[in-house]
Specification:
single chain, 109 residues, mainly alpha, 5 helices
Length: 109
Amino acid sequence: MVHKRWYDKNPKLSELIAYLEEQERNVQDAFSQHLLQILIYEFNFNLDEQISKLSEPWEHPYNRWYDENIELFTIVQFIKTLSYDEQSYLVDSVVSHVLIDNLKEKNND
């Protein structure tokens, strides 16, 4: 199997990215927030260090769909730094978080 994009190497991550691509901006933003929270609290992600790395000058054409959403773009850059297993865990975790939040919202209605 030929992988065209870096995230296609991980089927779980590839599915999540494909799902997010089809969603409205508010859903993408909600997932971005969940992903960031998981990175910080479950991975002990050093946010300052990672943002510093993203701030370094570099040429970027902004041709991908997620480049138009700065929050999602930033999260995707963070996810690139994770191992395959960490990416898989992150996807499982974010799906669980979002599912639980949706169930809580339905129970409150």
